[in-house]
Amino acid sequence: MRKPAEGSTRLRGAFVGSASGAVGIAAHALGGGVVAPEQPSVALLIGACAAVGVLVGSRRLRTGLVELMGLLAIGQAIGHTALTMSPGHHHGSHATTVMLFTHLAAIPVGALLIRGAEAALTSAASSVRDVVRVLRTVPTPAPAPIVRVTPRGAVNPRRLLLSSGIGTRGPPAHR
Predict the structure, then answer these.
(1) CA distance 106 to 68
(2) What sections of the protein cross the membrane (predicted)?
């Protein structure tokens, strides 16, 4: 049985999936395409970007910046393809150029933002873990110091003190 993916890889998948959808809608709108919430292509875009996020989040290895940009490019291509599936979809040549440049500009910016968010969340989680570790430990009291009393020398008790009425009175002891 496989272990579940780390929290950071799941978070990376969520970032890549949501960024692919957001950039797909923004680039489509900047390129002159109409994106309306009632279009079936928006539902397809949400499903496609969720699938991209799950696939990216299931990867076990930490991705480098170049690989992260490649994953964003694939996610944006899938998102753009999902948006073009609406009936009556068309682009002009100028709109396609603007859309392409928007997608290309969003890839490195998105990768840097995702990498920065991962670093910030890792730092925050590490700080929280350290605080919880400190709060969870129970302080133990310092051991009490051991005081040793040493006799200086035994003093012979005086006879008067020994026979001063301590005990019961009775006949003298036989010698």
Answers:
(1) 12
(2) 12-35, 41-58, 65-83, 95-114
Q: Look at the chain and report how many structural domains it folds into.
A: 1
In tens, the pLDDT along 104-134 reads 888 898 888 888 888 888 888 889 989 998 8
Q: What is the DSSP letter of 1?
A: -
Q: Number of helices and strands (H, E) in the chain? A: 5, 0
Indicate yes or no: pTM above 0.85: no
Q: Is residue 73 part of a domain?
A: yes
The answer to whether position 143 is within a domain reads no
The count of C-alpha atoms lying within 13 angstroms of the C-alpha of 31, restricted to the half-sphere facing its C-beta, is 27
Q: Does residue 149 form part of some domain? A: no
User: Do the domain assignments include residue 152?
Assistant: no
Contact 60, 9 (CB under 8 A): yes
